[in-house]
Automatic annotation (TrEMBL), chains A, B:
Top enzyme class: oxidoreductase
Keywords: Oxidoreductase
Gene3D superfamilies xrefs: Electron Transport, Fmn-binding Protein, Chain A
Molecular function terms, GO-annotated: oxidoreductase activity
SUPFAM superfamilies recorded: FMN-binding split barrel
Protein name: Pyridoxamine 5'-phosphate oxidase family protein
The protein's Enzyme Commission number: 1.-.-.-
Signal peptide span: none
Organism: Nocardioides vastitatis
């Protein structure tokens, strides 16, 4: 049986930046919601695309949100999870910073036009993994290398 | 580019029942939280273990919660997600139903004693996938076969 190990900020940032798919968690008046989505990290912010009327478009702007990425290995019986916390904001293409504009966008699996961006400039970034003696980054199924 | 396709209830139940790792989403006074966790399905309920003082132990009982499982394939550029919604309840071993007691429990990656159970008898179960022409169940990395 393994122990839970806290990841350092740098480990969290590296794992979050290397990923491409995660989950936005927000609160609606009726309760919590989770939105699986492709994303990209630019500086200290998570960026995702959304479209008018979508949950993120309607409820994320100005709200306390959580963005989570994780990876598990059933064969090894271990995994990791990183969580970014902060306030989300809806931004238009013209409100993106130069760095945010230069980052190759999230993978597009679904076409949605028109679209806007949800930006989460995280306040805290924490993570944990199960067990020592293995490298979360080395076991990622995909890895963004642009920084 | 693909379209988003709604999954049927039966497809959602099959995918949720076959999985082993998912994410509990709940609301704390300070905002939303996400808890990655191993789980099992018994009847129309999600069951996870928790320990005194853990987030699930403190905030899930009696709350509107969401439980999510998903799987993505970066090579294929597609994925699926299933979400169970309802009110969570903390139950002791003796409060489990006969069926819930018979189900082999969630994988144990971390030792936590003592522990209690969080049960989510879902009210709604919905899901979606990106694109047609592929089988979410066939692409699962692990699959529980006990029913």
């Amino acid at each position: 049986m393994s122990e839970i190990v806290e990841l350092t900020y740098d480990e969290c940032e590296e794992l979050l930046s290397a990923g491409a798919f995660g989950r936005f968690v927000l609160t609606r008046p009726t309760g919590p919601e989770i939105v699986p989505v492709n994303y990209v990290v630019a500086g200290e912010a998570v960026l995702v695309r959304t479209a008018p009327g979508a949950l993120l478009d309607r409820y994320a702007d100005g709200s306390s949100v959580v963005f989570e990425v994780d990876q598990v290995s059933y064969e090894q019986g271990h995994g990791w999870s990183v969580v970014a916390r902060g306030r989300a904001e809806r931004v238009t293409e013209s409100q993106l910073t130069d760095e945010e504009r230069r980052v190759p966008g999230p993978p597009r699996w679904v076409s949605r036009e028109p679209e806007s961006w949800i930006r989460l400039r995280w306040i805290t970034l924490t993570g944990r993994r199960v067990g020592n003696g293995w490298s979360p980054l080395a076991e990622m199924p995909v890895r963004r290398v642009w920084r």
